[in-house]
Amino acid sequence: MNTGTFVCLLMLFFVFLTVRNQRQNYIAAKNIRKKGDRSHMIELAKNFIGKECLIYTFNGSQVEGVIKDISGNALLVENKGNTEVLNLDFVIRIREYPRNKKGKKKSVVID
How many CB atoms lie within 10 A of CB 64? Predict the structure, then answer.
C-alpha cells in the first residue's frame, strides 16, 4: 500500500470518528433536555449564585467564574470582567472552587 492511500484511509477514519462522536453528543443532549430535568437543575444551580464555581459542560470544557444570575434556562457567569452565558441544558456539573485549609484557592484542580 502506498503512502497516499494510507493517508487517505487514515483521514477517512478520523472523519468517521468525529462524526460518530458528534452524533452521540447530539443524542445524549437530546435526552438531557427534558422539561422535568430542567427545573431540577435550575433549582440546584440557584444555590451557587454569588459563589466562585467551576462549571463543567457537556462537550468537556470547563468554565470558571462567579455565578451572577440564573434566568430561564441560562446561567450568567462572570470571570475577570468577562461575562458568559451558558445554557443549563449542557451543564453537567457545578461545584464551588476548591480551597485549601487557609482559605486560598487551590492552584491545581484535579478531577
Answer: 14
Helix or strand holding residue 21 (H, E)? helix 3-32
Q: For the segment 10-60, what is each residue's pLDDT rounded down to a tens digit?
A: 888 888 878 777 777 777 666 665 555 567 778 888 999 999 999 988 788
Beta-sheet strand order (sheet of 62-71): 82-87, 74-79, 62-71, 52-57, 91-96
Residue that the C-alpha cell 458528534 belongs to: 22
* pTM of the predicted structure, to 2 decimals: 0.64
Q: Categorize the per-residue pLDDT at 91 as very low, low, confident or very high, splitting at 50, 70 and 90.
A: confident
Question: What does the alpha-carbon distance between residue 65 and residue 50 come to, in Å, rounded to a whole number?
Answer: 10
CB 53 within 8 A of CB 67: yes
* Cα dihedral 9, 12, 13, 14 sign: positive
Burial zone of 31 (CB within 10 Å; 0-12 exposed, 13-18 middle, 19+ buried)? exposed
